[in-house]
């Protein structure tokens, strides 16, 4: 089959965007998963953290389905939703839209550039659920809020939440970011295990002074990525709950691929997060795929120039992190 796609990224979390609205593909469920495994394979010609399928919705402006690089489908993707927001808004000539995702219809909108020349979108991250059954996390208690999990670590305290994909968040020190601790415990909860039967995205978060945090995430279905949008949103919320940052105030969230802003809204005991950041396109490509043989060739690739501007933002962030993260 012949497929045309656009590769893009949100904070260096990179995706292949496949437009099922205009191109009339007739993918089966197995095809979508198999395409993710084949095309996202990092050592292959394209490589990505996942595929974003952009589809028609019968009640929203568009629909997003996200498949991780291992072929599993996720209920939500924050960085990916910014790319889909841009794609749908540009396709339909809109400045704001509603995108159907697996569990919610989410508001998205174009925003002033976070950095000169960097296309910027805001997406709604919601619903937020703390019930352990929503992840699921098999512990004999209803929620886990800044508490230890003895099977995972003697020292770290975790908060578990679904936004609505599952996240496990720990606020750590600079020292705890070093070494293999995050990798080891993430591999444990994303392999066959009793605690998280569906796996979980694991984030280590460091407070960098008021209103600034650094988040590093080991993603379910992928491994370490440059950034994870839902994780940065969930982590921002956790820091507000712990009194480290403020609700209703913009938090600068630094990551290994750049920087986003999160605003955490609280209404009684309900939460919703605005995630604001880049939606950068890297190239357009056409591929010829033989799914039964598990091979593909790239027949056309057109590089875009947006990344040059993004790299300036990235360089500034890297400079800041080199000193900020050590403290
Ligand atoms: N990178 C994404 C999340 C993608 C899905 C995640 N790996 C999962 O399986 O839940 C984001 O930006 O939120």
TrEMBL record:
<dbReference type="GO" id="GO:0009089">
    <property type="term" value="P:lysine biosynthetic process via diaminopimelate"/>
</dbReference>
<comment type="function">
    <text>Catalyzes the stereoinversion of LL-2,6-diaminopimelate (L,L-DAP) to meso-diaminopimelate (meso-DAP), a precursor of L-lysine and an essential component of the bacterial peptidoglycan.</text>
</comment>
<feature type="site" description="Could be important to modulate the pK values of the two catalytic cysteine residues">
    <location>
        <position position="219"/>
    </location>
</feature>
<comment type="subunit">
    <text>Homodimer.</text>
</comment>
<keyword id="KW-0457">Lysine biosynthesis</keyword>
<feature type="binding site">
    <location>
        <begin position="78"/>
        <end position="79"/>
    </location>
    <ligand>
        <name>substrate</name>
    </ligand>
</feature>
<feature type="active site" description="Proton donor">
    <location>
        <position position="77"/>
    </location>
</feature>
<protein>
    <recommendedName>
        <fullName>Diaminopimelate epimerase</fullName>
        <ecNumber>5.1.1.7</ecNumber>
    </recommendedName>
</protein>
<keyword id="KW-0028">Amino-acid biosynthesis</keyword>
<comment type="pathway">
    <text>Amino-acid biosynthesis; L-lysine biosynthesis via DAP pathway; DL-2,6-diaminopimelate from LL-2,6-diaminopimelate: step 1/1.</text>
</comment>
<feature type="binding site">
    <location>
        <begin position="229"/>
        <end position="230"/>
    </location>
    <ligand>
        <name>substrate</name>
    </ligand>
</feature>
<dbReference type="GO" id="GO:0008837">
    <property type="term" value="F:diaminopimelate epimerase activity"/>
</dbReference>
<feature type="active site">
    <location>
        <position position="77"/>
    </location>
</feature>
<dbReference type="InterPro" id="IPR018510">
    <property type="entry name" value="DAP_epimerase_AS"/>
</dbReference>
<feature type="binding site">
    <location>
        <position position="68"/>
    </location>
    <ligand>
        <name>substrate</name>
    </ligand>
</feature>
<keyword id="KW-0413">Isomerase</keyword>
<feature type="binding site">
    <location>
        <position position="201"/>
    </location>
    <ligand>
        <name>substrate</name>
    </ligand>
</feature>
<dbReference type="Pfam" id="PF01678">
    <property type="entry name" value="DAP_epimerase"/>
</dbReference>
<dbReference type="GO" id="GO:0005829">
    <property type="term" value="C:cytosol"/>
</dbReference>
<feature type="site" description="Could be important to modulate the pK values of the two catalytic cysteine residues">
    <location>
        <position position="167"/>
    </location>
</feature>
<comment type="similarity">
    <text>Belongs to the diaminopimelate epimerase family.</text>
</comment>
<dbReference type="InterPro" id="IPR001653">
    <property type="entry name" value="DAP_epimerase_DapF"/>
</dbReference>
<feature type="binding site">
    <location>
        <begin position="219"/>
        <end position="220"/>
    </location>
    <ligand>
        <name>substrate</name>
    </ligand>
</feature>
<feature type="binding site">
    <location>
        <position position="165"/>
    </location>
    <ligand>
        <name>substrate</name>
    </ligand>
</feature>
<keyword id="KW-0963">Cytoplasm</keyword>
<feature type="active site" description="Proton acceptor">
    <location>
        <position position="228"/>
    </location>
</feature>
<feature type="binding site">
    <location>
        <position position="13"/>
    </location>
    <ligand>
        <name>substrate</name>
    </ligand>
</feature>
């Amino acid at each position: 089959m012949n497929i045309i796609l656009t590769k893009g990224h949100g904070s260096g979390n990179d995706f292949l965007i496949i437009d099922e609205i205009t191109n009339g593909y007739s993918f089966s469920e197995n095809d979508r998963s198999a395409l993710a495994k084949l095309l996202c394979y990092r050592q292959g010609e394209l490589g990505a953290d996942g595929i974003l399928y952009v589809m028609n919705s019968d009640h929203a402006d568009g629909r997003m389905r996200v498949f991780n690089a291992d072929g599993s489908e996720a209920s939500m993707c924050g960085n990916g939703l910014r790319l889909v927001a841009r794609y749908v808004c540009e396709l339909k000539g809109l400045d704001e839209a509603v995108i159907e995702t697996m569990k919610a219809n989410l508001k998205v909108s174009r925003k002033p550039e976070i950095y000169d020349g960097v296309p910027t979108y805001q997406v709604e991250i919601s619903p937020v659920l703390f019930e352990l059954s929503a992840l699921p996390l098999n512990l004999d208690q209803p929620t886990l809020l800044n508490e230890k999990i003895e099977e995972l670590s003697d020292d770290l305290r975790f908060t578990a939440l679904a936004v609505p994909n599952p996240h496990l968040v720990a606020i750590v020190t600079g020292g705890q970011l070093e070494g293999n601790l995050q990798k080891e415990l993430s591999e444990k909860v994303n392999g066959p295990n009793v605690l998280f039967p569906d796996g979980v995205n694991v984030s280590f978060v460091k407070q960098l002074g008021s209103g600034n945090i650094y988040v590093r995430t080991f993603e379910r279905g992928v491994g370490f990525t440059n950034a994870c949008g839902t994780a940065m949103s969930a982590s921002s919320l956790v820091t507000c709950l712990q009194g480290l940052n403020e609700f209703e105030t913009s938090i600068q969230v630094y990551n290994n691929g750049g920087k986003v802003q999160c605003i955490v809204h609280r209404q009684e005991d309900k939460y919703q997060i605005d995630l604001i950041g880049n939606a950068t396109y890297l190239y357009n490509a056409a591929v010829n795929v033989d799914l039964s043989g598990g091979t593909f060739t790239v027949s056309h690739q057109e590089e875009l120039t947006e990344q040059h501007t993004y790299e300036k933002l990235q360089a500034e962030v890297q400079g800041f992190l080199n000193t900020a993260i050590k403290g």
